[in-house]
Amino acid sequence: xxxxxxxxxxxxxxxxxxxxxxxxxxxxxxxxxxxxxxxxxxxxxxxxxxxxxxxxxxxxxxxxxxxxxxxxxx
Length: 74
Description:
It is built from 5 helices and no strands. The protein is mainly α.
């Protein structure tokens, strides 16, 4: 979770890869879990909220510090 905040604040190749989409058809079967999906589920925030919060280091640290205790701010 902390690494995601780092990626969002810096313009890098990792950020471009993380936000990129692949052209073509989807594969068959159950959809794979994604890292971003896990972050969204763990933080219980919408993706746009997660992205905004990650840009502010102080707010992101507050969110990640309180993930296990059920006191994560919304």
